[in-house]
Amino acid sequence: MSKKDHMNTSVQEPPLDYSFRSIHVIQDLVSEEPRTGLRPLTHSKSGKSLTQSLWLNNNALNELRDFKHVISQLLEHPQNLAWIDLSFNDLTTIDPVLTTFFNLSVLYLHGNSIQRLGEVNKLAVLPRLRSLTLHGNPIEEEKGYR
Question: In this structure, is the dihedral angle defined by the CA atoms of residues 138, 141, 144 and 146, taken in order, positive or negative?
C-alpha cells in the first residue's frame, strides 16, 4: 500500500479519543486508555493506531511538552495527523510542535487561555489547515481578532 493510499484509508478510521480523561500532561497518554467509540480502533502490527485524528479535548493540559515523542508512540504514522482537538484545556500559547504536522487540516483550540493574537501567526506554515477554532480564548477581546 502506498503512502497516499494509507492516508486515504486512515482518514476513515475513528479518532484516538482521550477526551474527558483529566489528563494534565501529555506523557499520561502512554498509560491512559483511549475512549471507545462505536467503531473499534484499527492498529498496526506494532500495536500503534492507524488513525489521523487525535482528540484531547476537555482535559487539563497547559503545555504540550514531549507531544511529538508521545504521539510517535501512539500513532503508526504521526506525520499524517490531520485533526487535533485540544479544545477546553488550559493552553496559554500555541506550541510550535503543532506546526510540524504539515498534514494538519483541523485544529480545535477553543475554550483555552490563549491571550496573544500573535500566537496564531505560528500556524501560517501549515499548508493544509482549513479549520481553526479559537473562540472562548482571551484573544477574542483583541481588536481585529476575526
Answer: positive
> Measured between alpha carbons, how far is residue 10 from residues 33, 41, 77 in Å?
20, 10, 9
SS3 95: coil
Give pLDDT tens digits for 52-106: 999 999 999 999 999 999 999 999 999 999 999 999 999 999 999 999 999 999 9
CATH number of 3-36+47-141: 3.80.10.10
Take residue 85 and report the three cell numbers written for it. 482537538
For 18-74, the DSSP string reads: -TTS---SGGGGGTSPPBP-SSPPPB-TTS-B--SEEE--SS-----TTHHHHHHHH
